Amino acid sequence: MKLNRENKLLIGLCTAAVILIAKLFSIQILDDKYKMSADNNTMVYATIYPTRGIINDRNGNILVGNKVAYDLMVTPKEVEPFDTLALCEVLDITPEFVREKMDEFYRNRRRIGYQSVVMIKQIPPETYMKFAEVAYKFPGFRGQARSIREYPFNAGGNLLGYVSEVNAKYIENHPGEYKSGDYAGMTGIEAARETELRGEKGYNIWLRNSRNKIESRYRDGELDKEAVPGDDIMTTIDAELQRYGQMLMANKVGSLVAIEPSTGEILTLVSSPGIDVDQLANIGQHYKDISTDPYKPMFNRAVQASYPPGSVFKLVNGLIGLQEEVFSPNTLYPCNMGYHFGRNKLGCHAHKSPLNFEESIMMSCNAYYCYVLRSLLENPKYASIDEAMDKWNEYVKSFGFGQKLGSDFPSELGGNIPDSKYYNRVYRKGGWKATTVISLSIGQGEIGCTPLHLANLCATIANRGFYYTPHIIKDSENVTIDPKYKEKNYTMVDTTHFHKVIGGMYKAVNSGYGSGGTASVAAVEGLDICGKTGTAQNPHGNDHSVFICFAPRDNPKIAVAAYVENGGFGATWAAPIASLLTEKYLNGEISKDRKSLEDRMLKGNLMDRVKVK
Amino acid sequence: MRSAGGYRNRGIAKTIDWSLVFCWLILILIGWANIYASVHSSEPASIFDFASRSGKQFVWMATALGIALFILFVVPPRIYEGASVPIYAFVLFLLVAVIFLGIEVKGSRSWFEFGPVRFQPAEISKISTSLMLATVMSQLGYKIGRLKDFIITALIILVPMLIIVGQSETGSALVYVGFIFMLYREGLTGWLIFMVGMAILLFILTLTASPFVAILVLAGVASLCICLYSGRFRWWLILCVPAIILMAFVPNILEALTPVPIEGELPAEEIVEASLISKIKPLYVLLGFIGLSIPFAAFHAFRERNRFTQLAIVSAIAGIALVFSVDFLFNEVLQDHQRKRIEVLLGMKEDPSGVGYNVNQSMIAIGSGGFSGKGYLNGTQTTYGFVPEQSTDFIFCTIGEEWGFMGCTIVILLYVFLMWRIIKDAERSREAFTRIYGYCVACCIFMHLFINIGMTIGLMPVIGIPLPFISYGGSSLWGFTALLFIFIALDRNEKKYF
Predict the structure, then answer these.
(1) Distance CA A359, CA A329 (A)
(2) Among B42, B128, B335, B446, who pairs with B91 as Cys (CB 3.0-4.6 Å)?
(3) What is the Cα–Cα distance from A220 to B275, expressed in whole angstroms?
């Protein structure tokens, strides 16, 4: 062949063709990368949602279960003209809604293709059954079963928390864990125990064919993953007691906490007003109402609100005084309608004088504790009042005050217990003395604590000197709790000092009307309830009614703290409520002679006393 | 002379190159089937559904057949030579007019719209330019080596080309570069193709490597050419190769000389000295050497009256100028999207979801076809609309995905056969007009084929021009059909009379 220009060009032509074919050979036959990319484009991951773990109460009653609801799915490509009104009738929706949705699907038809999209979420089975009967009339519509939360007991709405579809922000904060369409616990136990409850999603991998229809399992399901159901959770809550507590606290603002002293397990934790479980089940509809309610039902007062403890705190000061030996149980202090210092006076109510330690608890004498606190702060053992103050602070903190107790609530408030640094900042160093801070003696002033702190104090006294960190989750088959919940936390006060306090608390309840005991209303025959009232001064309105009690006196089974905002005297609302709860727990029912008291408590409405912002 | 009557008896069966006609027919049928496949998934309908592209393409095919028959049996082939000047002028007028009267499609004004029909004058401009070239270059006494003839030829190509660039249809304009192969066949020096190739190489080297590398390569190639031409290959080996290798190490040497400034250890004067060395750029060293050697080479060239060496030196200087203007050309002359496409092609920027998206998805589609493809209408890439312009510029994806390596090779071989056959027919013809026109046809088809397929498999930047006969579109199908059938008619005419 002559190498003339014609042939050179023909050779060039063939070379160009060879270049193209060689490149094709390389990407079509040698390189696997492109085949895999194309596979990825055609694979469809069909998520299998796990059933969420069940939340039980301490007795195995289901607090939160699962039930089936149906999502109405539409495959727009398969929809044929249908009777809109008939569909609306069975599904109880408006024709406008249908039209709007179908328009939306039409607008997004390219993106949707042959896929199915959700038209209505969570149709209850009864409604769905009506649809299922006539489903043949509506090609392209079908139901997809999905498990949603169910609440057999109206108890513990705030504790349980709600589950809702994750939003973009939530997905972002939990990288790689959630996809849109997933549900997650947002508050309460559902949020705190999300990792155990949610289980693991599974998936089936399907292949789409060229017409975007699901054709076959990818590799016969070899790479599919089964869904792993979530672990069940057992709570320490007693569902019956919780419900009863909620009933007692209805139409009052405040908290009611009950702890089993021998374990630290929380039996009941009511924050009122709270969230009804009916609202939880359909949080989407109620969210706006709940979040705009001026009484803030989402706010868990029992662990998040800071209150002055009031007279209940005298128990702590008394115990510290005994441990520091600044007085003895037999010490008598006078009370002349209060404690007089200089030209000032910290008032008290009328009762016998002088009186000893037990009587001071029984009658809740203010002056007695002014003497005690003053002796503590002016104790010659300590070089300065600063040192004495810090010692006092250390003692109080050993009862769990002034810090987060470390419960398993996602948000718990630490409260406040002042120390010398604090007063030095406020009054400058040396600018304050015992009488400046005298209101600390009766649980007023710069002290802030949560109702959970008070319940824990009660449990500590019931245990004669130690507490278990309060918690709400129990050990169960798949869930083990932190070992810290099984460790005793000892206070700095010796066990031997507690019987005197308990004696006073016993007398406060069981001395009978007319004896001067402040909590006679809480007495229940045979239960040996020991209690202490408190009336926390409230500069914004009526005083708060406070009461802590435990029972029985020996081997206590329950320790309760009740805090009723604007309830007035401790004995007016808090003491009856706490004692009724105790009675219910120990006896299972309310005795006949206390029925009228129960009735008054259940019907009592203090809502208009509470000022809302 | 033989009597004409005896040859009139040779009927269409013997005079028409049926292999070309069949090749055309097979290609447009392949095109039709694949257009159906590419639009099928989103709106499944009959291939004849006139609302869909496959249905419309059937109409374009039928009309294209009409055009083919009209050209074969109605238009007397003799008229082309005479008519080429007015046709060329008219098409030029249309090309300019469309800029003002046309509608805007994807940023370029190159389409006329008549009711439902859109029509792109650039498509027939290929025909008119080919005819014009054939007419001018087949004149008695035309010599491409003569400057005047060369300039006229170049103008015939460049005028429509530049107008099309003015319509922002750079891709279509690029096709005209292909006429260089025809010019080569007609006697243009091969150095021109070589220089165009060098220019492209320098451009790419400057962008991807550095001006230093580009100039080094240029120096090597230029010196090799000069030495080879004057039969001093040994000189080149002994002198130039070591010099170039030495130059290649200049950056390393400079780096080694630059003391690493360690704070506190060097006195101030030495730091100044060090920074002086670091200011010497390897590029300037290289240019210095070239600057010294060029006068030397030029002196020799003029003394020996060696025209080749003179031109080579001028070209080399032009090459250096090109290297330095690459930045300007690339950043100022090219439009933004063109620049991005080149960057993606050269791997300067990874951009799988932006500009690189089309190419990436197109390569996935073709690559996933494997050896024998996924089967007709079973392409999945096509279905989900990952590849844009699937029925027009990226139609080759559908072929690659559904028919695999086999299908692609067959299609490419069909084109090779078509062009081969055209060249063979052209070479056999006794009239220069037919030969030149034939080469023009082959060049146009070649450029379209190489650029279009090259684009879908990542060999070329994304340049939106159709795959001849296969891509969807009436304008393009009619244009290529007319282009081809005028050649078939010319070819037939020769067989009829000779």
Answers:
(1) 10
(2) B128
(3) 67
Query: Which whole-number Å values give the CA distances from B164 to A344, A402, B114, B176, B475, in the listed order?
Result: 102, 82, 20, 10, 16
Which of the residues A2, A14, A20 would you substitute to probe the B interface, choosing the one with the greatest number of B C-beta atoms within 10 Å?
A20
Alpha helix locations (H) across A46-114? 84-91, 95-107, 109-112
Report the alpha-carbon distance of residue B85 to residue A435 in Å, rounded: 117
Cβ-count burial B118-142 (b if 16+ within 10 Å, e if not): ebbbbbbbbbbbbbbbbbbbbeeeb
- Helix, strand, or coil (residue A448): strand
A589 neighbors A550 (Cβ within 8 angstroms): no
Size of interface A-B (CB pairs under 8 A): 114
Q: Which two tokens stand for residue B94?
A: 């249309």
Neighbours of B302 (CB within 10 A): 12
The single-letter code of the amino acid at A437 is V
CB of A23 less than 8 A from some CB of B: yes
Question: Is B454 in Cβ contact with A28 (below 8 Å)?
Answer: no
- pLDDT, position B130: 96
Whole-angstrom Cα distance, residue A436 to residue A387? 16
The amino acid at B451: I
d(CA B363, CA B379): 13
Phi, psi of A611, rounded to the nearest 5 degrees: -85, 130
Question: Considering only CB atoms, which chain B residues are within 8 Å of A211?
Answer: 41, 44, 383
Complete DSSP assignment for A506-573: HHHHHS-TTS--TTGGG--TTT--EEEEEEE--TTSSPEEEEEEEE-SSS--EEEEEEETT--STTTT
Q: What is the pLDDT of residues B446-489, one digit of tens each?
A: 999 999 999 999 888 888 889 999 999 888 999 999 999 999 99
* Residue % of chain A over a pLDDT of 90: 46
Instruction: Judge residue A15's burial from the number of C-beta atoms within 10 Å of its C-beta, 0-12 exposed, 13-18 middle, 19 or more buried.
Output: exposed
Instruction: Give the contacts of B361 (CB within 8 A, at least 6 positions apart).
Output: B381, B386, B387
Distance of CA A57 to the CA centre of its chain: 14
Instruction: Establish if B380 touches chain A: CB-CB under 8 angstroms.
Output: yes
Q: Tokens for A300?
A: 């868990």
Tokens in use for A519? 């909590």
The residues facing A490 across adjacent strands are A466
Question: Other C-beta atoms within 10 Å of A320: how many?
Answer: 24
For range A137-158, the mean pLDDT: 83
- Phi, psi (degrees; rounded to nearest 5) at B145: -70, -20
Q: What is the residue extent of each domain of chain B?
A: 12-189+418-495, 209-334
Instruction: Report A:26-45 residues touching B (Cβ under 8 A).
Output: 27-29, 31, 33-35, 37-39, 41-42
Q: What local confidence, expressed as pLDDT, does residue B10 receive?
A: 61
Q: Which residues 454-473 of B are in CB contact (within 8 Å) with A?
A: 454, 457-459
What confidence tens digit (pLDDT) does each residue in A293-330 have? Answer: 888 888 889 999 999 999 999 999 999 999 999 999 99
Restricting to B residues 411-440, those with a Cβ less than 8 Å away from any Cβ of A are 412-413, 415-416, 419-420, 423, 427
Q: What per-residue confidence (pLDDT) applies to A225?
A: 83
Nearest Cβ partner for A10 among B383, B408, B423? B423
Distance, CA of A308 to chain centre: 22
For tokens 């470390």, what's the residue?
A: A406
Contacts of A239 (CB under 8 A, 6+ apart): A57, A59, A61, A63, A153, A155, A156
How far is residue A549's CA from residue A365's CA, in Å, rounded to a whole number?
A: 18
Q: Residues A169-187: pLDDT tens digits?
A: 888 888 878 887 788 888 8
H/E element holding B195?
helix B190-208
